């Protein structure tokens, strides 16, 4: 199994510098990773560095809490798309989901989908959810027109778990992608997630995963 094209090569640290983003993009090109996953302030710079390559840009929106207004998320997504993003990774409104306000939760996601006009990955933050809430979050994402559901931001209590990936894949079937992110450090861990149903891997340890560290 060739892992490189599964990987969103990730740098979301708040202290990331211009040099860090340049290195991330160079590594992504050298290793043919699917995208770089970065914060919005770096999208324009990454677009310059990646011009002419096959590496996309996943811009993180509403990160890492998901608790801002839908209008704020939509503006952020629209700006990221304008600046060169090719995909959007947005955090679901976790409070709305836990309140069982599924209509508002779906509307929040749809605001980003409509604003970006790009494939949107919806981060559920599974570590904060029950199994039923994970299922309902997947349904909201599907109903809103998202392209993927994603396990984690990597900034909460734990990251991707096999059982969560399996549940997400079971819920969305083949209609959406499933992205496993958070705490994946080795090729074995990545392969297990893919076997469980993940179609994308988010990782900052991409070089180690692909045996290049």
Instruction: Kindly report the spatial arrangement of strands forming the biggest sheet.
Output: 1-2-3-4-5-6-7-8
Shape by Cα distribution: globular
What does the average pLDDT come to? 97
Number of helices: 9
Q: Topology as H/E string? A: EHEHEHEHHEHEHEHEH
Instruction: Report the C-alpha radius of gyration, rounded.
Output: 16 Å
* Strand percent estimate: 15-25%
Query: Which class best fits the helix and strand makeup?
Result: alpha/beta
Distance between the termini: 18 Å
Annotation, overall tally of beta strands: 8
The major pleated sheet works out as:
8 strands, parallel, barrel
Describe the structure concisely for a colleague.
With 213 residues, the chain is an alpha/beta fold.
Topology:
Layout lengths: L6 E5 L6 H13 L4 E5 L3 H8 L5 E6 L8 H14 L3 E5 L2 H5 L3 H15 L3 E4 L7 H14 L3 E3 L11 H11 L4 E5 L5 H10 L3 E4 L2 H4 L4
Parallel strand pairs: 1-2, 1-8, 2-3, 3-4, 4-5, 5-6, 6-7, 7-8
Structure, explained:
With 213 residues, the protein is an alpha/beta fold. Helices cover 44% and strands 17% of the residues. It is built from 9 helices and 8 strands. It has helices at 18-30, 43-50, 70-83, 94-98, 102-116, 131-144, 162-172, 187-196, 206-209; strands spanning 7-11, 35-39, 56-61, 87-91, 120-123, 148-150, 177-181, 200-203. An 8-stranded parallel beta barrel has the order 1-2-3-4-5-6-7-8, surrounded by 7 helices. Strand 7, helix 8 (187-196) and strand 8 form a beta-alpha-beta unit. The model has no long low-confidence stretch (mean pLDDT 97).
